[in-house]
Amino acid sequence: MTSGHLFRRTTLSLIIAASALSACSDNKPPAAPERGPMPVTVLEMQPQSVPSAIEVMAQTEGARETEVRARVGGILVKRLYQEGETVKAGQPLFQIDRSTYEITLADAKAKADQANREMLRLKGLIESRAISQREYDATVSTNAIAQAALHQAQLNLSWTTVTAPVGGSTGRAVKSEGNLITAGTDSLLTSIFQSNPIWVSFSLGDSDLNKLAGGRVTQQNIKGVELILANGTTYAKPGKLNFLASNIDTTLGTQQLRAEFDNTENLLLPGQFVRIRLLTGEREGVFLVPQAAIIQNEQGAMVMLAGAEDKVAPRPIQVAEWRGKDWVVIGGLQAGDKVIVDNLMKLRPGAPVAPHPAGAAPGTAGAPGAATPAKPAAKE
């Protein structure tokens, strides 16, 4: 093979290899476009005045919780009310078998009538001195005992119908029809709860008491009482303190208190777990931040701000108490700070964001705090 022929073959191979590399380069997938700033919702902070408060767990209870007990024994033959309904004072609730007490009453009445007749007969004889005074006095005593026994028999018969001692909401019946009722320790039949007004019991520990002047609750340092329901809403009607313990519980180190609330519409039931908010004054220059916007870690509480050049800036803060669905922030924020309230798990310090106010669409032009949309690149 000549050197010229070998050169031509080598040149052809290089041309084919170059063509293949060029084809591979042309088929390379395009690079993924860079992601833009993360859209986030921000709240611009402005100082506010809010009531200062102490908020603690509490439990509702009836203003009067009355046990309904049988005063005589016997077989329970009928329940006369619907469990859970509201009853009036004196309304029949249970019926105990009357037959034995009716017989006892008839016997007592017969003996009382006989004793009364005997006393009247001897009264004429004592006036004529036909009998001794001692004999007549014994007859008078016998008549009094018989009349008392008659009255007791009448009461026992009336007590076979167990009535409501007070008005209120009834509880579950403890005994059922056919049960034997025994007067005494086994006499409880049900309970009645008076829920208007309703009471709320709670206690304050040392950390809460130290927030008050003098380290204790008085009528002077409590400006108002509010009730927070389980869903976080505030009960529409304000309350008032109706009991302040005069001593500190030595076992728990707490002061026991109780508040009273109007419950005309029966929105509150005894036994509910709620929160009590004691208003102690006013906080000036604080900020309200949604609970979801605050991050809690071992260093304390912090928020993410949309800072300079719309980049994420962590900021440690100091919080006081809840106010509805917000935290009361007493330190760490300044007027005009933009607190990020969503997408917190996706944010990193220094990352660019596209902030927009609550209720505005991300990237809305002209919206306060919204990112200005970038102009599309000119086509080459």
Description:
- Helix content is 22%, strand content 36%.
- Helix 2 (99-127) packs antiparallel against helix 3 (133-159).
- The two termini are 52 Å apart.
- The strands form three sheets. Strands 2, 4, 7, 9, 10, 11, 12, 13, 14, 15, 16 and 17 form a twelve-stranded antiparallel β-sheet that branches. A four-stranded antiparallel β-sheet has the order 6-5-3-8. Strands 18-1-19 form a three-stranded mixed β-sheet, with no helix packed on it.
- It has four helices and 19 strands.
- It has four domains: 39-49 and 284-357, conserved putative lor/sdh protein from methanococcus maripaludis s2 fold; 53-62 and 196-282, Elongation Factor Tu (Ef-tu), domain 3; 71-97 and 160-186, OB fold (Dihydrolipoamide Acetyltransferase, E2P), CATH 2.40.50; 98-158, Helix Hairpins (Orthogonal Bundle).
Task: Give a nutshell description of this structure.
This protein is an alpha+beta fold. The chain folds into four domains: 39-49 and 284-357, conserved putative lor/sdh protein from methanococcus maripaludis s2 fold (Beta Barrel); 53-62 and 196-282, Efflux pump adaptor protein, beta barrel domain (Elongation Factor Tu (Ef-tu), domain 3), CATH 2.40.30; 71-97 and 160-186, OB fold (Dihydrolipoamide Acetyltransferase, E2P) (Beta Barrel), CATH 2.40.50; 98-158, Orthogonal Bundle (Helix Hairpins), CATH 1.10.287.
